[in-house]
Amino acid sequence: MASNSAPRLYKEDFTTRVKFVLCLMAALALMAVDRRYGHLNDFRIAVANLVDPIEHAAQLPGKFVETAGDYTRRQDALLSENEALRDQNLYLRVRLQQLQALENENNRLRTLLDSPRKPGQRVLVSNIIGANSDRFQQSVRIDKGLRHGVYEGQTAVDAYGVLGQVTSVETNSAEVLLISDVNHELPAQILRTGQRAVAAGSGDNSALRLRYLPLDADVQIGDVVTTSGLGGRFPADIPVGTVTSVQTAPGQQFLQVKISPDAKLNRTRDVVLVWPEVPVQGEVAASDPTTATQ
Amino acid sequence: MIHVRNWWIVPFTVICALMFSQLPIPQAVTPAIPTWTTLVVIYWATFLTPHFGVISGFIIGILLDVTDGVLLGQNAFVLTIIVFIVRHQAKRIATAPMVQQVFLVAMFEGVRLLLLLAVNFFLNRRPVDFSTYFLSCFTTAIIWPWVYFTFRQLQRRFDLR
């Protein structure tokens, strides 16, 4: 500022430079430690606790608009929506009855095969509270965290299919990396043939690539792709997507297969966190997820 | 560090900027959203130079890292450098006509994005969509006059010097 005299300017310049170098070194050290030794979890959680109110406040305007929309909606629109939901509920209840019968049968058959598994999957519904300003990953922030038992690596789904996995957890929020992220890969299988492959994100919300399928693999457009459960991170048999194109490229060892994800990656508001199936005690061999899904 | 009356205005604007950057918006338009934190950092580093130094930039960077859930330190690294450059050129920026200021802001945002790209190159991470990566240069620069006049009013009203 104008009030600075010349000698003082020099001194300030020097201390600024020292501070500058120290800050740069601190930032580099943080990056190295965070990258090499995993997340600096305690530090991150401590800072996140400070920022937490900000994040939750940021979703207030959206919530307000939503509530206002609810109030101003007309009664007949509400009535017809209610009716549609009631129909859907009835339909889903009937499906559920059939599923329960199937589940019983499945359990009986599994017992015969000596690999019983407890079917009850624990789930938790959470809301997306913010998008991400980082341009290097496709992820969303959700409003459930350590306090609700969320853990790193947990599977997140929406009503239609697998959405992603939790990559960092704080007290009241967590970051979910979407399956469409360029760095995300997930073990998948084609439901019709049981052929295993890897569903890799392409950075595009509406298309994943199915990698490592040999040229002679039986893949057709419209084939349903689910998680395979290999690797043990994602539970098996969650819908991933549908095959939309199968191509062979000259000189390539594998088929070029594209699938469109079932999950509404860019439109969903609700994220459901899934806990893995709990293997029945005493069945150690069957509890290994890589062998249990074969 | 800041021994000024009404110093809380500065952290308050930073918090607002962080909140704005967290607003849930469709992913398709994310790259076109102005970088609010850059604007705030450039303003205070230019017009409150004695009290807004590289350490402030560093702290804001850490907060940004945590709210974005990315590797700790990358935004801190980048914003430290940006604050240093802006402080170095503060008088020139402050006395430049508005059109030039807009170009300078675009340049600073461009430098920030380039630095971020470099850092992420070493981390083996590619941008989600490279064609829109530098889009926020333009939007951030276009917003600058409004930010400038609003903050000017704030600074006068609360007598921040």
Notable traits:
heterodimer; A: 294 residues; alpha+beta; Thrombin, subunit H; 6-stranded antiparallel β-barrel; 6-stranded antiparallel barrel; 6 helices; disordered C terminus; B: 161 residues; mainly alpha; 7 helices
Largest interface: A-B, 54 and 53 residues
Query: Helix content range of the residues of chain A, please?
Result: 25-40%
Major sheet characteristics of chain A: 6 strands, antiparallel, barrel
- The fourth-level CATH homologous superfamily of the domain at 114-294 in chain A is Rod shape-determining protein MreC, domain 2
Question: What is the residue-mean pLDDT of chain B, rounded to a whole number?
Answer: 89
Radius of gyration of chain B, in Å, reads 15 Å
| Unreliable runs of chain B | none
Radius of gyration of chain A: 25 Å
DSSP E strands of chain A, number: 12
Q: What is the H/E order of chain A?
A: HHHHEEEEEEEEEEEEHH
| DSSP strand tally of chain B | 0
- How many domains, in number, for the residues of chain B? 1
Approximate strand percentage of chain B: under 5%
Structural class of chain A: alpha+beta
- Please count the helical segments of chain A: 6
Structural class of chain B: mainly alpha
Notes on the protein architecture:
The complex is a heterodimer of chains A (294) and B (161). By secondary structure, chain A is of the alpha+beta class. In chain A, 37% of the residues lie in helices and 23% in strands. Chain A has helices at 6-36, 41-58, 60-72, 75-112, 284-287, 289-292; strands spanning 123-130, 139-142, 155-157, 162-169, 174-178, 185-190, 196-201, 208-211, 224-227, 239-247, 256-261, 270-274. Chain A is globular. The model of chain A is unreliable at 1-6 and 281-294 (pLDDT under 50). Chain B is built from seven helices and no strands. Chain B has helices at residues 9-22, 36-47, 54-68, 74-88, 90-95, 98-122, 135-157. Chain B starts with 8 loop residues before the first helix and ends with a helix.
